[in-house]
Amino acid sequence: MTVAPQGTARTDAPGRAELSITSHDTARATKWLRRLGRRLFVLDFLLVAVAIAVALVARFGSGAPRVQVTGALGRVPVTSYAALAIALIVGWLAMLYSGRTYDARVIGIGADEYKRIVRSSLWLWGGVAIICYVGRIEIARVFFAIAFPLGTLLLLAGRWAARKVLHHARSRSQDWSHRVLVIGGGQEVDELVTEFDREPYAGLHVVGACIPGGLDGIAPHSVPVVGSLTSVLQAVASTGADTVAVTASRGVTSGVLKRLGWELEGAGVDIVVAPALTDVAGPRVHVRPVSGLSLLYVEQPEFRGLSWAIKEVFDRCVAALGLLFGLSLFGLFAFLIKITSSGPVIFRQDRVGRDGNVFTVYKFRTMVCDAEEKLDDLRLQNESDGALFKLRQDPRVTTVGRWLRRFSVDELPQLVNVLLGEMSLVGPRPALPVEAEQYGHTVARRLLVKPGITGLWQVSGRSDLSWEDSVRLDLYYVENWSFTSDIQILWKTVYAVATSRGAY
Question: What is the pTM of this model?
C-alpha cells in the first residue's frame, strides 16, 4: 500500500479514505493532550495517596492491625492495611480512568469533569462496601469515613487548581488549545468564532475555515479560508487541525457531514457539530435516533419542581448561617461607614424581582447621602451602553464605600432579602424599576426567576461587561439554571471577589 503525498487523501475502499497526516501531524496537534493527561494522572495519584495515608495515620497512628475476615473459624487476619492502601490507590485510579475523567472533551471546562470524578469515587467506595459486606471483611469504619470524602475533595480541588493553571497557560499561548477548522458559510463561521472567542479558556483556537465555493465563496471576516467543502482533508493537513467544527449553514447537508465523517475516520480528528441552537446548556439537550436521524430534544426551562424547592431551601439555610456567623463583621463595617460619612449605614432601594414584583433591597451604604440627587448631573458621563448607569470614578462613592464595593462587601445585607424569599444567592442582577420599564419581551425573561446576590455577570467581569453581554449572561442563566451550576457560580464568586476584577 503506497503512501500518498502530504496533504492528500488516498482511498482503499469505497466510502473510506485515509489521511497521510494521521501518524505525524495528528500526533503533533494532540501532543499537549497526552502531556496534560499524564500530568493529571500523576496529580491524582499523589492526591489519592495523601488521602489514604492521612486516613491510616488518623485511625491507627504509627501502627495498624491486619485486615480481618470473619468466617467459621472466627476472625482471621488476611492482609495488612499497607497492602489494602496500595490496592485502593490502584483501584481508585483505575476507576477514574474507566470513568473517563481524563477525556479531552471534559478537561478544563464545564461541570462534567467534576461529576465524573464524584461518580467514579462513589462507584469505587460503593463497590468496596459491598465486597466487605458480602465477604465479611472488617475494615475500620473511621478509615473508610476519612479516606473517601477526603480523597474525593482533594481530587476535586486538584482538578480545579489544574484547570486554573491550564486556563492561564491558554491565555499566554495557543500550544495548550485545540486547533479547530470550521466548516460552513462565511456568516455562520464568524458567529461561531465569536462564540469561541468569548471563552478562550475553553481551548478552541480556530485556525481556518472551509466554506462552500472555497476561495471563490463569501469569505468570513474572522479567519482565513483554507479550502472548500470538498478539500477538508487537505485543509486539515495544512493547518494541523485536531478538531473540525461543522456549523449549521447552507451547503452543509447531511450527505456532506456523512462523507466528512467517513473521510476523517481513523485520523484522530474530532468532529464537532454546532447546531443553530445557541444559549442552551448541554443538560437540556438530548439526542434521540429516529429512522437514521439524530434528533435533538430540548427540554423546557425549569422554574418549579423538586430542583427549585432544593434551591429555595439551600438559599435560605445559607443566608441564615451567613447572617448568624457574619454579625460581628457586619458590626465592623457599619462602624466604619458611620464614622467616615454622615447618613444611615444601610442603603434601601426599590428593585424589581421575580414576576415583576417590587421589593426593597438592602446594601451597606457606599455613597454620599444625596447620591440620587446628584445622578442627573453625571448622566452625560455614563460609561454604560445600555439601561445601566456605570462610572468608574464615581465622585459620589465614599472612601470606605470604594473598598466595600471592590470586594462586594456592600452586598452582604442582601442575605436578609434571601432569607425573606425576595432574592436568591444566585440569579440575574436585581433591576431598578426604571431599567425594567425599558425591557423588551426578550430581556423581560430575566424576571422569570429571583434576582441574585451573585450570578454569571458577577463571575464574568462584573461592571466591565457591556449591557448586551450582561443581558446575554442573565438570560442564559434563566434558561439553563441548575443546582449544580449555582454551586459552581458561588465557588467562582469567591475568586471574582478576591481579584476584585470589574468592581467599581
Answer: 0.71
